[in-house]
Amino acid sequence: MFKKLLSSKKKPKDKYGWFGDYTSWAKASSEAGGYDEHIILERTTNALLKVKSGEAVYERDSVIFDQKEIPYALMSFLMLSATLKKRPLNVLDFGGSLGSTYYQIKDLLPEETCASWNIVEQEHYVTSGKANFEDETLKFYSSIDSCFEKKKIDFILLSGSVQYLKDPHVFLEKLAGYDFDFILFDRTAFNNATNDRLTLQVVPPEIYPASYPAWFFHKEFFLSHFSDRYKVVAEFPSYVEGEAVMFIDDRPQGTNKGFYLVNSSKYD
């Protein structure tokens, strides 16, 4: 997970969620302590192994659920993209953990939709992914470029990952330059105000004791990186219950949503 998992050093007493309006990543990080990424990875690995074996139905952020939440928008746009491409897609899942979304939808998609599912993650996730989950369809890489050495990617998925990057706009500008056919952002945090906002996210301890910087983006600025090359075909809400309204400092000030972008130079 591209979320930087940080054990909370300073947090509002008995409160969890998103807090503050930080002027820099360094300031937000200074209010979060060290983190034990091995505990988070272990919990995620164990949860997804249960999903893989059929002992559990669905995993998200290391938590097991007894019922799937179906990302219908993602599934629809994967199928539409495969139709436009006229062949099964090579999908890149940026920050896709150990295959959470892959296992969530793989039994629901037609075979002609997806040729391969390629996850780009932090190195320790890649190591666990290769050891425990990799198969003929699901592959793990430590960077977009290393994935490109093996696969020609058609469709990139970024679900709940961009807001946890230190320099997201540098990344978005680079992302636009890769010239993917299709880009889908899902569960991405946007601010109701006319600027980006940097917060400190405090995670409930029943998930894992952690806090880390998290962005809420200004929609127009976010999408401006793609205006020269892509058409925004659709905007859609998060499929996760409770993310239509996101609270910052206990006030409704944002939302998690998604966008489906199609490369206009390739598809009119």
Could you walk me through the main structural features you see in this protein, from its secondary elements to its overall organization?
- The chain has about 270 residues and is of the alpha/beta class.
- The chain has one domain (about 15-265): Rossmann fold.
- The protein is about 30% helix and about 30% strand.
- It contains 8 helices and 13 strands.
- It has helices spanning about 25-30, 35-55, 70-85, 100-105, 125-130, 145-150, 170-175, 220-225, and strands at about 15-20, 60, 65, 90-95, 115-120, 140, 155-160, 180-190, 195-205, 210-215, 230-235, 245-250, 250-265.
- The strands form 3 sheets. Strands 4, 5, 6, 7, 8, 11, 12 and 13 form an 8-stranded mixed sheet that branches.
- A hairpin with a 2-residue loop joins β12 and β13.
- α2 (about 35-55) packs parallel to α5.
- The protein starts with 16 loop residues before the first strand and ends in a 5-residue tail after the last strand.
List the helices and strands and how they pair.
Blueprint: E1 17-22, H1 25-30, H2 37-53, E2 58-60, E3 63-65, H3 72-85, E4 89-94, H4 100-105, E5 114-120, H5 123-132, E6 138-141, H6 144-148, E7 155-159, H7 168-177, E8 182-191, E9 197-203, E10 210-216, H8 219-224, E11 230-237, E12 246-248, E13 251-263
